[in-house]
Structures are given as structure tokens and as C-alpha cells.
Design brief:
The complex is a heterodimer of chains A (640) and B (216).
Chain A (H helix, E strand, L loop, with lengths): L1 H7 L16 E5 L3 E8 L2 E4 L9 E2 L1 E4 L5 E3 L1 H5 L8 E3 L34 E3 L2 E3 L1 H20 L5 E6 L5 H13 L3 E7 H13 L3 E8 L4 E9 L2 E10 L4 H20 L6 H20 L2 E8 L2 E8 H25 L9 E5 L6 H11 L12 H14 L5 E3 L6 E5 L3 E6 L7 E7 L9 E7 L9 E8 L12 E7 L5 E7 L5 E5 L8 H11 L3 H31 L5 H19 L3 H14 L1 H17 L13 H7 L2
Parallel strand pairs in A: 1-10, 10-11, 12-17, 14-18
Antiparallel strand pairs in A: 1-2, 2-3, 2-4, 5-6, 5-7, 8-9, 12-13, 13-14, 15-16, 19-20, 19-22, 21-24, 22-23, 24-25, 25-26
Chain B lengths: L4 H4 L1 H4 L5 E2 L6 E2 L20 H4 L10 H15 L9 H22 L1 H11 L15 H16 L3 H27 L3 H31 L1
Antiparallel strand pairs in B: 1-2
Helix pairs in contact in B: 4-5, 5-6, 6-9, 7-9, 8-9
The chains are: A alpha+beta (640), B mainly alpha (216).
The structure holds zinc ion.
The site of zinc ion (ZN) has 8 residues of chain B, from loops.
Chain lengths: 640, 216
């Protein structure tokens, strides 16, 4: 323990608020690439490798012993050892298999058979892994990059997620960070992070649109930026649409050509990965070049495929037009017209595709702003927010719920409780009642989405409120509360109002990990899990003790005159012991002494309360009424 | 009476009797967001939406004022300001920010604001309707407009209906302003109900337009 603290800051006093806390990083955990950045004294910095490269490919290769290699090295193994390599794992975060696109009927993932419910598991180089674990390995590599760069331990981060990520995917992202030994200070929506970085660095004011087409997700957000406030007016998107889909379109095209010349054949998941890799190369080339030729080689047969930009645009146009339609709806949701928009910020590598720029410019009636690096801006925003959360800042991010949250009612209908684009945090309560006489339990099924029927939306969680006393149908009053926190995560609680029977759950998504699985994974994957936990508890003990100290010091400043010299000396001594304990690393001692301080100051608190009441009654300063326990002037008014 | 000043004297003095700060145990007034002694965030007080935003309870709200107050308060109360504080402070911040969002969302929108004011006067319009008024005229007007919308064949037809609805909404808001100023609760209820119908129509206009664009 002591060693760990010394890493943070050799020689200085380890009291909070003096810069002892290690820097918190900002992480853009992308479908195709990741970026990690830091911000210090308002200056963001993207962390690069020795070649100056900021992008870490979101590709993980697993060795037979289970150890993971992340990034460029792993990417190079895709063609040679496809069975040991996973890419685009973000597309599986919090999702079921139905959400994954196949290539000529083959998934580019080797899915463990027999998994029909809950979280998908992949077979990679003989290991059975969940998307959460694989993302955890990516995050661990990013954490390592930051630690190498800073020469200090990093254990807190702001991690970005697509605005349109649902509750299950957000929870999965947070779980992955935990596996990597990172405490998520906040999940920030990617377009919001981009707007923050853009707004602060370019001094933009007014209403802006952020069009974010990543590898596997699409978001568009409309924000109002003014004097350091970043207010999201509306957001929309498609959590299963991104640059990957351009790759899929090209790969399908190539494989169809190949089938025409070589005869149709069922491909393997490894072959699918190889075809997608070739397609991606083709897409990237066609951004700058009008045409080119690529090769696909498996089964000892090599086929050549020519592709020009016009054909590529024909393949990708329906996808881009789909994003433009979403933009249209979001502008309307924001209650504005395109003329109100000052500019469009493009985010995500896929916005380099010329057709995207062209159609976006037409929809928003503005040439998109190209003076930012679309790959790095999200991480920069995340780093800035990490600094704001730990060091403080005058900027304020006000975000919204991307999708409506509702509850299943009779006939598989959805009753919306929190509509989309509601500012978070938010809590809403709605009352329901029983359907049958004597009904003793009610099933509460939370869903997310815009459609009317339950099965058209994403099921988030289901639980039962039991112990409802026998009543006639319609007499019970079941209050259901939906609360969404600043990370966009939902908690549902229900109580019967006439009796107070209660039930509350944190939503554990149907595609999420159980607490038990999480515990096992933490145990397996983190050699330092116990150390990390200890350090966190110590940090919490210090924060709590510091609050107690501050409270007493503030009270002494205002009401110190109420104490005798002896009383004052006793409190000063108690303060000193707590201060001393905080410099140490024993959290039990810190907690114990902080409690002692509370006890020691209780008589002081009572005296202060007496004075406070007298002051309030008189509306005057207390000196005027030193002995006036009961102030008659007030009583006279009372009868009026 | 004097023995327990906390309950009886509060409304008459203008100085609510102090609560105890959960952190430093010193006195805090009911409306204090932060302890005057130790500056720690305090639990939610029971105040209406206008008071929460420190605004006069009126329909004629200046939206810029509302935004300014909202940003100012959220700048102090938002959970982002408490990320490294104790869990109790984080919880309180979450509750305060949630209530502030609720107040802001309600007052920002003219229909919700009208409904809230009607509610403060002891009536309800949303979601089920108001007992004070039975409004056959309103219903008829709404039916008529929806019928016109269903018959609309061209974008121009839809635009004409949208323009009429927008004009009617403006009229409604002017009327509501007068009704609330004159404490005409029946009038306020009727106009709030009319506004509700018109908003619904505006939504339907939007859907119809989207449908038409999709088909063309
Ligand atoms: Zn206090």
C-alpha cells in the first residue's frame, strides 16, 4: 500500500485536494480504433506511440496461454491467424447475436455454440470470452499506454460511448473498465465529448450539429453551446450502423463476384474476417483514389476484384441516406430548423468517405467543419471532461436520454415513462394498478425504445413486486419510478403506496453479466484486484474524513466563540489526530478517528443549533438577543 | 406555542426555522442549497418549480431568464461537480439536479407550464383532462383539423394545416397569459386543453410529412 502511494507523489503530503490524485484519462473506446488522451491545466494531449500514432486498433489477438495483444500487432495477425484475433467487439457490447451482421450468412466471430440466452461468448484461440472481457483487455492496454506515458498509475477514466448506446451496452462498457482496473468517473456520449472539445478549442457558440459515424455506430446530436454550457437539445442514431457496414457491403460485393467465377461456397468465420479486412483496405483507398484492384485469397484460390468510387458509392448510398434521415428527425426533435444550425462537426473515421461529406452538407446546408481530427476529437473531449470531474472546471455538460424508457402494460403495449431527449439525471414516477381481484404480485418489465409494442423494443430488465395485500382489482396503487443517472444508466423501483411494500433493482440487462460472473472475472483477470479495492476504500475514507474536517473547521470559523478554551483545545486536538491519520494509509484508523471527531463536536453542534434558531426567529444577528430564548415579537404576529 | 417554534412560527416570520446541516450540524434555512457555514450540498427542500428556479410564478416566463437560472444552478448542483466527493454528497447532487431538470422541463414548455400553473390552482388538465370544463367545441375543432389532415394530399395542404395550427397555438398562448393574469381558472383550463389538442395535431402533422417524404 505504502509503495503504491509513493508512486503517486514522492515526498509530498498525501492529503486530498493538493494534486495527490493521479491524473484521470479520457478514453475513446471505438469499434475500429481507440484513443487515449489526458488533459492538464486545460491543455489536452493525445497519447501517441513512438511512431506518433494515436490510434490503437480495437483488435485483440490471444495467445494459447490466454494473454492478449492489443492494437497494430494484433491487426497484423488477422490474415495469418484469424481464429486467434477479434475485431469490432464493440458491436457485441450488451447485445445478442441477432444484432450482429453476417457475411454471406457467416458471422465474422466464432461464436460458442449452445449460448442462446444472455451474453454472447466467443471462441478465440481456444478461449471462451465475453465481449466485456475482450473490451476489458483493450482498455487495459490503453491504461498501460497512459501509465507508460505518465510514469504513474492510472486508475480513473472518462470513457465515451455512442449516444445511442442502450442501457445494456453502457453497463457492459462500465463492467469492461472495471475488469481493466479502471474506475469510470463518467460515461460521456461521444458526440457530446466531441462538441466539448470542439467548442472549447475553437470557441464555438450557438447551435451545432455533431455527425458521428464511427466503425459500428452512428450518432447525431444537436447542441446549444454558450458560455461554457454544452446543452444537448436532441440526439439520435443507430447503434448498429457504421463504417463496418461499408466494409460489409464491399465484402459482399467481392464475395458475390468470387462466387460467380468460382462457384458458391459456405465461408468460415476466419474467411469472413479476411474478406472484411480486404474490403476495409478498399474503402480506405477509395477515399483518395478513383479506383483500384484487390485480391481475396483462401482455399488456395486467389480472386481479383476491381472497384471504382462510383460503384462503392452505389453500395454505400443507402447507408448514408439512412443516416441523413435520422439527422432530419433529430433536427425536428430539437425543435429547430436547419437554418438555426451554425455548423456541423464531423466525427469518426467513416466521415472521411466523400459521399458522407456530400450528403451531410446538403442536409445541414453547411459545409462540414473539417478543421478537427475526426479520429481524435472524442478522446480529447473525454480527457477534458476527466479533468473537469477531478480538478474542476467552469464548463457544464447537460446531456439527454437518447431513447425512451417505458414499461410493459396490458396487451404487450409500452407505456412511456421517460421520453427520449429528456435531460439527465431524471426521475419519473407513474402509478399503476392491479388487474385482478386479490392479485399479490405485479411483474415490472422495463423496455427501451420508441415503438408501441414491447417486442419491438429492447427489453432491459424484468422483476416482480411481491407481497401486495389482497385488494379488489384496480384498488392497489403501484408507484413505479424510473431514474436515469448522469451516466445514462437506469434504476427501476416499485412500491405499493397504500402499504409501502417495496422492490428496487438496478437494471441488470438481459444481455449483461450477473454479479457472480463479474466477481469471477474480476478474480481471474486482475492480479491486483485486491490492491485496487483497498486503494479505493482508502481514497473514500480520506474524502469522507476531509469532509468532516472541513465541516468542523468551517463551524469553528463562524461559531468558535461559543466554546470555552478547554472545549476548543479538545476539538483542535481531535482535528489534528484526524489530519495526522489521513497522512497514513490505514483506513480503519481514519474512519475511526473521523467518527470520534463527530462525537467530540456534538455538544458544539447543539450550541450552534440553539444560536441558529434564535437568529432565525429574530431575523437579526444573534448578538442583539444573547439571552432571548423566546422572542415575543414573533408570537404576536402569529395570531394575525 | 413558544415551546416548539419549528412548526408554528415558520410562516409568519419570513425566516424559516433552521434545519440542521447534515455535515457540520450547523443551522441551514429550508431553501438553502448549500450550508452557509461549511458550503456542503443540502437535501432537497419542498419547493415548487418556480421557486426552485427562483422565478416568479407566472405564465409569462422569459425563456432566456429561465435558461440563465437553470444553467447557473445546474452549474453548482450537477453530479459532474461532485464526482470526487463523498457518496452522500453525490446522492444529494443527483437528487438536486434531477429536481432541477424536472422544474426546467416543466416550465420551458408552454403547455406543461400552463398545466403546472393550473395544477398549482388546484386543477388538472394533463393527462386525463379537466373536470372544470366540458369542451364540445374544442373537441369538434380538434376533430375537424385532424380530419383535414387525414384528407391532405399534397405538401401544400399539410403546410396550410401546420400554419393554421401554429397561429392557433400563438393565440392560445396569448389567451393563457391573459387568463392567468386575471386568475380566470376556467379560461386557463379551457385554453390549456385546446393547447394540448393543438400540440397533438402538430405531432401528427410532422408524422404525416415524414410519411409523405418517405413515399416520394
Ligand atoms: Zn454545514
Amino acid at each position: 500500500m505504502a509503495d503504491l502511494l509513493q508512486i503517486h507523489e514522492p515526498g509530498a503530503t498525501p492529503l486530498p485536494h493538493d494534486g495527490e490524485e493521479a491524473i484521470a484519462v479520457g478514453i475513446d473506446l471505438g469499434t475500429t480504433n481507440c484513443v487515449v488522451a489526458i488533459s492538464s491545466e486545460g491543455k489536452p494531449e493525445v497519447l501517441r506511440d513512438e511512431d506518433g500514432e494515436a490510434l490503437v486498433p480495437s483488435v485483440v489477438a490471444y495467445a494459447p496461454d490466454g494473454s492478449a495483444v492489443v492494437g497494430g500487432m494484433a491487426k497484423m495477425l488477422i490474415l495469418d491467424r484469424p481464429e486467434a484475433v477479434v475485431s469490432s467487439i464493440k458491436r457485441l457490447m450488451g447485445r445478442g447475436l441477432d444484432d450482429v451482421k453476417s457475411l454471406t450468412g457467416t458471422l465474422p466471430y466464432d461464436v460458442e455454440p449452445g449460448e442462446t440466452e444472455g451474453m454472447v461468448r466467443l471462441n478465440v484461440a481456444g478461449h471462451r470470452l465475453t465481449p466485456v472481457e475482450i473490451s476489458g483487455d483493450i482498455l487495459a492496454a490503453l491504461k498501460e499506454r497512459a501509465e507508460l506515458h505518465l510514469g504513474a498509475k492510472v486508475d480513473r477514466a472518462v470513457v465515451t460511448v455512442p449516444a445511442y448506446f442502450d442501457d445494456a451496452a453502457r453497463t457492459a462498457t462500465k463492467d469492461a473498465a472495471r475488469l481493466a482496473g479502471l474506475e469510470v468517473l463518467r460515461l460521456v456520449n461521444e458526440p457530446t465529448a466531441a462538441a466539448l472539445a470542439y467548442g472549447l478549442d475553437e470557441g464555438a457558440e450557438g447551435i451545432y450539429a455533431v455527425y458521428d459515424l464511427g466503425g459500428g455506430t452512428f450518432d447525431v446530436s444537436i447542441l446549444k453551446m454558450q458560455k461554457g454550457v454544452f446543452q444537448v437539445l436532441a440526439t439520435g442514431g443507430d447503434a448498429a450502423l457504421g463504417g463496418d457496414d461499408f466494409d460489409h457491403a464491399i465484402a459482399e460485393h467481392f464475395l458475390a463476384e468470387r462466387a460467380a467465377s468460382q462457384g458458391a461456397k459456405v465461408i468460415t468465420s476466419s474467411e469472413a474476417k479476411a474478406a472484411l479486412m480486404t474490403a476495409r483496405l478498399a474503402k480506405e483507398c477509395l477515399t483518395d483514389q478513383p479506383d483500384g484492384e484487390w485480391m481475396i485469397s483462401f482455399d488456395d484460390i486467389m480472386t481479383k476484384h476491381a472497384l471504382d468510387r462510383e460503384t462503392f458509392e452505389g453500395l454505400s448510398r443507402p447507408l448514408v441516406e439512412h443516416t441523413v434521415r435520422i439527422c432530419h428527425d433529430v433536427i425536428a426533435d430539437a425543435g429547430i430548423t436547419p437554418d438555426d444550425i451554425q455548423g456541423v462537426v464531423l466525427v469518426g473515421g467513416s466521415t472521411r468517405v466523400p459521399l458522407v461529406r456530400q450528403l451531410v452538407a446538403a442536409e445541414f446546408r453547411h459545409e462540414p467543419l473539417a478543421d478537427i481530427n475526426p479520429d481524435e476529437v472524442v478522446a480529447v473531449g473525454a480527457a477534458r471532461q476527466a479533468e473537469a470531474l477531478t480538478v474542476g472546471s467552469d464548463t457544464l455538460l447537460l446531456d439527454v436520454t437518447p431513447l425512451s424508457l417505458g414499461i410493459e402494460t396490458m396487451g404487450q403495449m409500452v407505456e412511456k415513462i421517460i421520453p427520449r431527449n429528456t435531460p439527465i439525471p431524471v426521475a419519473k414516477r407513474q402509478e399503476f394498478t392491479t388487474f385482478q381481484d386479490g392479485q399479490s404480485a405485479m411483474s415490472i418489465h422495463a423496455v427501451q425504445g420508441e415503438r408501441e409494442m414491447v417486442d419491438q423494443n429492447r427489453s432491459l430488465a424484468q422483476f416482480a413486486l411481491r407481497g401486495i395485500p389482497p385488494m379488489t382489482a384496480g384498488a392497489a396503487r403501484i408507484e413505479v419510478t424510473f431514474a436515469v443517472d448522469a451516466d445514462g444508466l437506469l434504476t427501476v423501483s416499485a412500491r405499493e403506496a397504500t402499504t409501502g411494500v417495496e422492490s428496487q433493482i438496478e437494471v441488470k440487462p438481459s444481455y449483461g453479466l450477473s454479479d457472480e460472473e463479474m466477481r469471477d472475472m474480476l478474480y481471474d483477470s486482475m492480479k491486483h484486484a485486491k490492491d485496487d479495492m483497498e486503494r479505493r476504500l482508502l481514497a473514500e475514507a480520506r474524502v469522507e474524513a476531509e469532509r468532516s474536517l472541513n465541516a468542523v473547521v468551517a463551524a469553528l470559523r463562524v461559531d468558535g466563540d461559543l466554546l470555552t478554551a478547554d472545549e476548543r483545545a479538545a476539538i483542535d486536538a481531535a482535528l489534528q489526530t484526524v489530519t495526522d491519520a489521513m497522512a497514513g494509509t490505514d483506513r480503519d484508523i481514519i474512519n475511526g478517528l473521523a467518527e470520534d471527531l463527530e462525537v467530540a463536536t456534538r455538544p458544539f453542534a447543539e450550541k450552534r443549533m440553539d444560536r441558529g434558531i434564535r437568529e432565525a426567529l429574530s431575523g437579526h444577528s444573534v448578538e442583539d438577543f444573547e439571552d432571548a430564548d423566546e422572542e415575543p415579537a414573533v408570537k404576536a404576529e402569529e395570531s394575525a | 406555542m413558544q415551546a416548539d417554534p419549528t412548526e408554528t412560527l415558520t410562516p409568519f416570520t419570513g425566516h424559516a426555522c433552521p434545519q440542521e446541516c447534515w455535515s457540520c450540524k450547523g443551522p441551514v434555512a429550508l431553501e438553502d442549497l448549500f450550508c452557509p457555514t461549511c458550503s456542503t450540498i443540502q437535501p432537497l427542500g419542498q419547493v415548487d418549480h418556480f421557486k426552485r428556479l427562483d422565478l416568479e410564478a407566472t405564465f409569462d416566463l422569459d425563456v432566456n431568464d429561465l435558461d440563465r437560472r437553470y444553467f447557473e444552478l445546474q452549474g453548482k448542483l450537477h453530479p459532474d461537480r461532485f464526482a470526487t466527493k463523498t457518496s452522500q454528497e453525490r446522492t444529494l447532487s443527483m437528487q438536486q439536479a434531477t429536481s432541477l431538470n424536472d422544474a426546467y422541463e416543466t416550465l420551458k414548455d408552454s403547455l406543461k407550464r400552463a398545466d403546472y400553473l393550473v395544477h398549482m390552482m388546484g386543477q388538472n388538465v394533463l393527462p386525463e383532462g379537466c373536470q372544470l370544463i366540458s369542451a364540445p367545441d374544442l373537441l369538434e375543432e380538434a376533430m375537424e383539423l385532424r380530419e383535414a389532415l387525414a384528407m391532405a394530399e399534397t405538401a401544400d395542404d399539410i403546410d396550410a394545416i401546420a400554419a393554421r395550427a401554429a397561429g392557433d397555438i400563438d393565440d392560445c398562448e396569448i389567451g393563457l397569459s391573459k387568463a392567468f393574469a386575471g386568475e380566470d381558472i376556467e379560461g386557463a383550463c379551457a385554453l390549456t386543453t385546446r393547447l394540448k389538442y393543438l400540440r397533438k395535431l402538430t405531432d401528427e402533422v410532422r408524422q404525416q410529412r415524414a410519411k409523405m417524404t418517405a413515399m416520394s
